[in-house]
Amino acid sequence: MKHTVASEDIAGSEEFRHLSTIAGIAVDLRYAGADNFVGRDLYSPFDCAWLHRDAAAALEKVVAWLAQQRPGCTALVLDALRPQRVQEQLWEALAGTELQMYLANPERGSIHSFGMALDITILDEAGRELDMGTGFDDMTDRSHPALEPQFLARGEITAAQVANRQLLRDAMVQAGFQGITTEWWHYDCGDRNVVRQTFRRVL
Q: How far is CA 4 from the centre of its chain?
């Protein structure tokens, strides 16, 4: 099997599922509009509302867990499949800045480009995003889960904000996702090294 597949071809592949087939989620793909750090739509004309079938099945476990643990709350998908060509655009947009640390080098490949990563948050019963202390794609230290104890001790994030992040972590980890130390919203489905070695990258 080829280790790459074009964005245009995934609709006909059994490897991938469209987000519209996953019940109980909300979707607001931030790179499909101007509400992102680049300030423009990076996805058109491609439909990027896809996940690898393994990640889609794991997301269904997140939905079920939230329904049981926090009825009325909804998983909001902010980014799912991010084709390699889009990852390259993001990388170039931050070229020469320290902010590149927040992106996977396209040469190595973002786990998003395999359909095996999610950027995600939670909506409350009224459909509002839970307060996580920063917005999505906030490229400051306050977004780093690893630094939460320090920011909490200094009063720069609140206990309620940390609790909201922990709710998201609990929902994701029990479904098999793994968080990272620098972004509260980003989760990989499974081991990223295994993904890079065995899954197809979407170009």
A: 21
Tell the residue number behind the tokens 């655009």, with chain if given: 89
- Looking up tokens 């490229």 gives 139
Total residues found in the chain within this entry:
203
* Dist CA 191 CA 35 (whole Å): 29
How far apart are alpha carbons 147 and 164 in whole angstroms? 15
Structure tokens at 89: 């655009």
pTM value > 0.85: yes
Q: Would you call 183 a catalytic residue per the annotation?
A: yes
Distance between CA 171 and CA 64 in Å, rounded?
A: 9
State the catalytic residue, choosing from 8, 14, 107, 183. 183
Nearest to 48 by CA among 66, 65, 27: 27
The tokens 């998908």 sit on which residue? Answer: 77
Tokens 């280790």 belong to 3
Q: Tens of pLDDT along 54-101?
A: 999 999 999 999 999 999 999 999 999 999 999 998 898 888 888 888
